[in-house]
Design brief:
membrane, mainly alpha, EC 4.2.2.29, Endolytic murein transglycosylase, transmembrane, Dna Ligase, domain 1, 3 domains
């Protein structure tokens, strides 16, 4: 190849290289200004704070959309890049945060990893007050003994709560009880009165239903069986009441003993419904709304007086002792 041809190729190559470099500089510069603009405060002179809530388990995309909708960030893509750049995605907390439009994207991203005003706490249906005390202690640092001083069994409504992180034991209990009063509505209480049941009796029955019925479809039938047995003067014979009376099992690290012995069923306790007719003295756990509704809506025409649980937790109902024994033979032995 001649020298002049080589020189021409080199000049063409250099031209293309220069064009590419200019293009990259333009694109890079454009992206830089796009990124910088996207990180700026929405309104740097607005100091008024907003309470921004991150739901428990909420994903980053949803959080970013909510920040944008509430005019706390300028650009969703840029904020996503900021979170990724800072490595904060796994550090974002659930809770509520005091943010304002004068904060830039970096400040907002960092704020979501600390300084939550409230803490999400979930109380599970069918847990007793000691178990709830453990959850409160783990999440809010309130000593279990302090919580138990004020806790009333069955009145700590199971739900997911946003609780102030500096709340006292009494304040937490009041939040749970207030929610119970709201969810256990006047309409439900009126239905209870029509069945000649007090609110306390409904909560006690509902706590039994909560512990006995593993599946939603069984709740109504269990409630009807309990009411039928009470109306017939029969003992309730509920395993969960004995488990409640037995209390904490160190070997199982559980408040609910898995396998009851014949000796357990003979224990002397007002909660032992194998030995005592009628309802136990009070609830044995905190029932959820579904179990409360199962009690007040129980069908009075349900013919069943017995049920037995199979290995999957499904219940099988019987009208007579003979049918019940047959179910035991089929599903237990």
């Amino acid at each position: 190849m001649k020298l002049n041809e080589i020189s021409s190729l080199y000049r063409n190559y250099m031209k293309r290289l220069i064009i590419l470099i200019i293009f990259l500089l333009v694109v890079g510069g454009g992206f830089y200004f796009y990124y910088q603009a996207g990180t700026l405060p929405v309104e740097k002179n607005v100091k008024e704070s907003k309470i921004f809530i991150v739901q428990k388990g909420e994903g980053l995309d949803s959080i970013i959309n909510n920040l944008y909708d509430q005019k706390l960030i300028r650009n969703k893509i840029v904020f996503f890049l900021v979170v990724k750049q800072l490595g904060l995605e796994k550090n974002i907390q659930a809770g509520d945060f005091r943010l304002n439009q004068s904060m830039d994207a970096h400040q907002i991203a960092n704020s979501l990893t600390k300084g939550t005003l409230d803490i999400w706490v979930t109380i599970i249906e069918g847990t007793r007050k000691e178990e709830i005390a453990q959850v409160i202690s783990q999440n809010l640092g309130i000593p279990e003994t302090e919580f138990l001083k004020y806790a009333q069994e069955g009145y700590l409504f199971p739900d997911t709560y946003l609780i102030p992180k500096d709340a006292t034991a009494e304040a937490v209990i009041q939040i749970l009880k207030t929610n119970l009063e709201r969810r256990f509505s006047d309409d439900l209480k009126e239905k209870a009165r029509q069945k000649n049941l007090t609110a306390d009796e409904v909560l006690t029955l509902a706590s039994l239903v909560e512990r006995e019925a593993k599946y939603d479809e069984d709740r109504g039938q269990v409630a009807s069986v309990l009411l039928n047995r009470l109306d017939s003067g029969m003992k309730l014979d509920i395993d969960a009441t004995v488990q409640y009376a037995l209390g904490y099992q160190p070997g199982e690290k559980s408040w609910w003993k898995k396998e009851l012995s014949l000796d357990d069923l003979e224990m002397i306790s007002p909660y032992n419904t194998y030995k005592n007719a009628g309802l136990p003295p009070g609830p044995i756990a905190s029932p959820g709304l579904a179990s409360i509704e199962a009690v007040v809506n129980a069908n009075p025409d349900t013919p069943y007086l017995f049920y037995v649980s199979d290995s999957t937790g499904h219940l099988h109902f019987a009208r007579t002792l003979e049918e019940h024994n047959e179910n035991i033979r089929k599903f237990i032995r």
